[in-house]
Amino acid sequence: MLPIVKISNLDKYFGRLHVLKNISLEVPEREVVCLIGRSGSGKSTLLRCINFLEEPSHGSIEVDGVKVPEDAKGAERRKLIHDVRLRTGMVFQEFNLFPHMSVLENVIEGPVIVKGMDRKQAIELAEKNLNHVDMLWKKDEYPMRLSGGQKQRVAIARALTMEPRVMLFDEPTSALDPELIGEVMNVMKKIAFEGMTMIVVTHEMGFARDVADRVIVMADGGLIEDSKPEDLFNNPKDPRTKALIDRYRAEEQ
């Protein structure tokens, strides 16, 4: 099966700091990939490079057949990046909902403004996705009246309403109180089991173990381990991976 996401020889520098080091990665359609690793290992930067929220320093990125080569410039590059973004949905740590818009208005904004979708069609699609994340009953509320978990579920519905081919999650539960994490994780599990291609940066090892098809460990800007969850959790090959797993198991005790 051809990969739906293909990253080739990716490097990212912030000034003289080499954050991502010659990363190559392929993700087949319908696969759920979790990126784990210590803070500062490059996980979020890698995710943000996929949809060009961070501009790669070197290398090429391809999403659903749209390739942005390293040498693409000017209007051609901007058009390719736009096409990649139309194929990727992004869920951030901090929700990023517009506070002056209702839940429904937040969800339809992208399809109407970016894709030029008919407003009636956008509302129908938005209500379907809000119902999917159990937030349709809050469609007329404003973000300030929602809990953190509710805001994140709205953010997921907003991303789904853009009809992406790939969903990117950047630590989607890190800003939530512990009692709210489960409701977001349950929505993500449902989306995964329905066949959405997902790349998830997470510290939630239980999700990685139970839901992911592959778990990739990052350290010092590189990919140090890439395997099925049962292999990684039961037989980690790199001592840095073992340290991560041991810390997770100690926290579970």
Describe this structure in words.
The protein is of the alpha/beta class. The chain has nine helices and ten strands. A six-stranded mixed beta sheet has the order 6-7-8-3-9-10, sandwiched between helices. Strands 2-1-4-5 form a four-stranded antiparallel beta sheet, with helices on one face. β7, α6 and β8 (197-201) form a beta-alpha-beta unit. α3 (103-113) crosses α4 (119-132) and α5 runs parallel beside α6. It is globular. It starts with a strand and ends with a helix. 42% of the residues are buried. The model has no long low-confidence stretch (mean pLDDT 94).
Order of helices and strands: EEEHEEHEHHHEHEHEEHH
Number of helices: 9
**In which order are the strands of the major sheet placed?**
6-7-8-3-9-10
**Separation of the first and last Cα atoms:** 40 Å
What is the radius of gyration?
A: 18 Å
Which regions are unreliable across 5 or more consecutive residues at pLDDT < 50? none
Task: Give the helix/strand class.
Answer: alpha/beta
Bulk shape: globular
Strand content: 25-35%
Mean pLDDT over the full residue set = 94
Oligomer: single chain
Would you count the extended β strands for me? 10
Work out the helicity level. 40-55%
User: Could you give a short account of the major beta sheet?
Assistant: 6 strands, mixed
